[in-house]
Specification:
10-stranded mixed beta sheet; 30% helix; 215 residues; alpha/beta
Amino acid sequence: MTRIVKVELQDTDNPALREAADIMRNGGLVVFPTETVYGLGTIASNEQAVLSVFTAKQRPNSTPLPVQIADITMLPLVSLNPPESAYILANKFWPGPLTIVLPRNPSISDAVTAGSDTVGVRIPDHAIMLQILKELNAPAVATSANISGYPAPITAHEAAEQIGESAELIIDSGPCQIGASSTVITITNNELKILRQGTITFEQITNALDPTINP
């Protein structure tokens, strides 16, 4: 039976967060808050665990999943040779709702990228989720905790209604503050493209980048 544990935003030493990391490390699913919506995730290196995310969301596994990390030093664990522009944007907007699509590190399961050679990554701007990632000490897949095609949940209750028994643990820290998806960009051959507009604008991104980038 899925457990729902209430954790206050400032209570980052709560043992439930270490339990969440242990569940993910062992291939289980956890629902957690982020600064955008409630997310569903597990460790990114376990193919069967990643596939269980698709099952829980009733989503085809032909669609890539984004990855979240605890700090910028973990970026090479997700992407091989990240370009300088990725570090510029990471230092400007992370933690925050900006997902950067980069060439993937082979250690990331093929199930995460749906066979693609790229992967989306970000650092969430939410103390609870960041602490879970620090406890996990590894990249995690993290996608909205909703059935595919349904609204993304901004409360733990909404996530529980949709995902239900698929997750072993739901961390409830109250309503999410933004309630919108992250902006998704890709940087390929020094060219920037926005794949999905979110809370961070095109102008903010291009203004932060070196002039050698061609928007």
